[in-house]
Design goal:
- By secondary structure, this protein is mainly α.
- It folds into two domains: 63 residues, Homeodomain-like (Arc Repressor Mutant, subunit A, Orthogonal Bundle), CATH 1.10.10.60; 132 residues, Tetracycline Repressor, domain 2 (Orthogonal Bundle), CATH 1.10.357.10.
- 70% of the residues lie in helices and 0% in strands.
- The protein has ten helices and no strands.
- The longest helix has 23 residues.
- It is elongated, with a radius of gyration of 19 Å.
- The termini are far apart.
- GO terms for molecular function: DNA-binding transcription factor activity; transcription cis-regulatory region binding.
Amino acid sequence: MQPPAPKPARERVLDAAHQLMLTVGLARATTKEIARAAGCSEAALYKHFASKEDLFIRVLTERLPQLTPLLNGLATEHGGGTVEENLTEIARQAALFYEQSFPIAASLYAETQLKRRHDEAMREMGKGPHLPIEGLDAYLRAEQAAGRVRADADTFAAASLLMGACAQRAFAYDVTAERPPAHTFAARLARTLLAGIGV
């Protein structure tokens, strides 16, 4: 039986970057270390990624649970599933995303220059932490128009509350072994939120 073909360099770099960012943090995961862990040269890394910030954003979008496709799909094709089921799945994916991205991104706030470069790269790529809130707001407004969310509900505030709670779960329980499981946390959060905005 033939051994599996080696992964392309781009995939190896993403895997190595993800692992190093999780273990040593973004600030200490240098492109030199990432290239070495991926078994390629630093020049080869830069063939695929314009900068360390670009690589970080690609790790977030290609290696962590994704909210944007889920939110976009729900906003354009609302009505499938109950609002509670949809909010539960959104909250579950968001909780997992923040849980996995928090250890990577936390070091951004320790280095002003790195944070500034990261923010600039995010703006240039049209990415940012505001997008999940806007996506959830769009979904809730679609459900509002369909009569499944109260007409007077503040959908932006509701979206902010749900995403904020998911981010807080990653932060608040990071130092304990008692983080609520994502699926039960998501179900409770969705049920509580819907009690305030549901019809």
